[in-house]
């Protein structure tokens, strides 16, 4: 099975344009041009949007002669996919190393609300540790009638 592509598989300009589409929702070429810090020409943005459609990142519709583009994934899904790829390649699958690194980078810029959100996620992870025993994991599913040593 082929590895699912992430935002890291795109070129720099493709990523910038996809990020603009994810941020804005349904967009025209002009919307993207306004969003980019150092925009290329109109025709270049139009061509890159077309590439992103062909690669399966965007869809488009014709609105009375004006093409409107929309991402085929949500911003949250794209973020999770990209982070999952980053964790597996750069951090060798160790989510805890990513968390520690992000906290180091954040320094003292986290708000009390952000800290509470992080604490809640950690507490939830502590209450629901991963199950390494597949039979035990299945036994926790309501309605499962797994025998003690089956599977």
Which properties best describe this structure?
single chain, 151 residues, mainly alpha, Arc Repressor Mutant, subunit A, 2 domains, two-stranded antiparallel ribbon, elongated
Please mark out the parts with pLDDT under 50 across 5 or more consecutive residues, or reply none. Answer: none
Count of separate structural domains: 2
Helix percentage range: 40-55%
Order of helices and strands: HHHEEHHHH
For this structure, the CATH topology of the largest domain is Arc Repressor Mutant, subunit A
Strand order of the largest sheet: 1-2
How far is the first residue's CA from the last residue's CA? 25 Å
Shape: elongated
Radius of gyration: 21 Å
Please describe the topology of this protein.
Blueprint: H1 12-24, H2 29-35, H3 42-54, E1 58-63, E2 66-71, H4 75-90, H5 95-106, H6 112-127, H7 134-139
Antiparallel strand pairs: 1-2
Helix pairs in contact: 1-3, 2-3
Short characterization:
This protein has helices at residues 12-24, 29-35, 42-54, 75-90, 95-106, 112-127, 134-139; strands at 58-63, 66-71. By secondary structure, it is mainly alpha-helical. It has a two-stranded antiparallel ribbon.
Task: Describe this entry's structure for a reader.
The protein has helices spanning about 10-25, 30-35, 40-55, 75-90, 95-105, 110-125, 135-140; strands at about 60-65, 65-70. The relative contact order is 0.09. The two termini are about 25 Å apart. The protein is mainly alpha-helical. The protein folds into two domains: about 1-95, Winged helix-like DNA-binding domain superfamily/Winged helix DNA-binding domain (Arc Repressor Mutant, subunit A); about 110-150, no CATH class.
């Amino acid at each position: 099975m082929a590895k699912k592509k992430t935002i890291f598989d795109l070129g720099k300009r493709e990523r910038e344009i996809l990020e603009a589409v994810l941020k804005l929702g349904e967009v025209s070429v002009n919307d993207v041009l306004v969003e980019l810090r150092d925009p290329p020409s109109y025709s270049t943005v139009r061509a890159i949007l077309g590439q992103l459609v062909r690669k399966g990142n965007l869809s488009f519709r014709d609105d009375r002669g004006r093409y409107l583009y929309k991402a085929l994934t949500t911003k949250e899904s794209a973020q999770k996919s990209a982070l999952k790829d980053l964790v597996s390649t750069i951090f060798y699958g160790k989510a805890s190393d990513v968390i520690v690194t992000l906290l180091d980078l954040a320094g003292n810029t986290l708000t009390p609300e952000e800290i509470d959100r992080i604490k809640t996620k950690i507490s939830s992870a502590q209450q629901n540790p991963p199950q390494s025993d597949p039979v035990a994991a299945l036994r926790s599913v309501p309605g499962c009638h797994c025998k003690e040593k089956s599977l």
